[in-house]
Amino acid sequence: VPTDLEGPMSQRPLIDHHAHGITLGELDRAGFEAYATESNSPPPVGTTAFDTPFGVAVRAWCAPLLDLPAHVDADAYLERRRALGGAEVGRRLLGATGITRILYETGISGPDFAVPSQLARLAKAEVDEVVRIEPLAEELLREGVPTAGFMDRYAEVLHARAGRAVSLKSIAAYRAGLDVVGPGPSDAVEVDRAMERWRREADRTGQVRLTEPVLLNELVWRGVSTGLPIQFHVGLGDDDVALGRCDPLHLTGFIRAVQERGTGIALLHCYPFHRQAAYLAHVFPTVHFDVGLTLNHVGAGADRVLREAMELAPFHKQLFSTDAYGLAELYHLGAWLFRRAFDRLAGDLIGAGDWSAPDADHVADLIAGRNARRLYGLEGVA
Ligand SMILES: [Zn+2]
């Protein structure tokens, strides 16, 4: 737990309700920079991903944990990183986050990635699984499961995986947009037609990538039938995301339709739609949200974004996450920037007489972990 912060969030154990694996392999400069940005392309020749809010934050706040002075230059940072090795870097950066439980989304991976048990050891944290729903269907298509009965087979596989997981996750936003997720399951005839289109496309291109709106909606609704909460990618992501169709207000019909079943919903990242997410969390009892990933990439701007996220949303609806992927630095800064932003906000509110110190402790407790425990039905005190 970081020792240079003081406030209601500074020493508190955190549940990271959405994150991924990190690579333990050796990273050259291009390799590190590829993980340091949401862009899928290298920066223009002569520029660097270190000239970003996240890049400068790495040099400022991660360097001391690798025994380097703050603000050390990028090459020296990466050289020290290589000398220590990926596992030791992971142990140092994750070990200092105070994250005690990670909800690990296994839908994406990369070279030399830590498996969940390795990640648990490095972070000294418990790890639970979150299952991404779209790859399970893509796997079945690859296996040649026929259109007749495809969705029933999918439901079997999904329910088996769901039995060992704490949540599902949808990336409909990446494949089409959140507007494809509607107030009910897809029509069965349309599902069969879309299956055939998808199969022909896969045969033609050799890729099983699912983009059919009717099927993306159907998979979400099959997910609803598991009874698990569903996380939705919302807002910023890599350049594959349809950001113009990522406003979570597109999910309003779906949210209303599942409200009676009590399906828990977690809107992830949300930027620049975090105010829309906060509104949905305000009016719908099942909706929760985070600004994870965002805080990493806005770096020093984390204070402002967290303040905006906390304007309207009930304090019992916000969640903490890092959305770390690939780099231990994303775990470290995701936690550190969040703690600092929260404590600065709490300090201001206490100073102005808006909150008492016990109020600040109570809200910190909710967002650090209590809300996640309630939403995902997690046991334990962490
Ligand atoms: Zn993620």
The count of strands amounts to: 8
Number of helices: 16
Strand order of the largest sheet: 1-2-3-4-5-6-7-8
Give a short account of the largest sheet.
8 strands, parallel
Strand content: 5-15%
Give the structural class.
alpha/beta
Q: Tell me, rounded to a whole number, the average pLDDT.
A: 95
Report the bound ligands by name, code or SMILES.
zinc ion
* Helix fraction bin: 40-55%
> What gross morphology would you assign?
globular
Could you characterize the architecture of this molecule?
The structure is a single chain. With 382 residues, the chain is α/β, with parallel strands linked by helices. The protein has 16 helices and 8 strands. Helix 12 (274-283) links the parallel strand 6 (265-269) and strand 7. Helix 4 packs parallel to helix 15 (328-351) and helix 6 packs across helix 7 (150-162). The structure holds zinc ion. Zinc ion binds at residues 18, 20, 105, 323.
Short description:
This protein has 382 residues and is of the alpha/beta class. It is 46% helix and 10% strand. It has 16 helices and 8 strands.
SSE order and pairing:
Blueprint: E1 14-19, H1 29-35, H2 53-62, H3 74-84, H4 86-95, E2 99-105, H5 116-123, E3 126-132, H6 133-142, H7 150-162, E4 167-170, H8 172-175, H9 188-205, H10 213-224, E5 230-234, H11 252-258, E6 265-269, H12 274-283, E7 287-290, H13 294-298, H14 302-309, E8 318-319, H15 328-351, H16 357-376
This protein binds zinc ion.
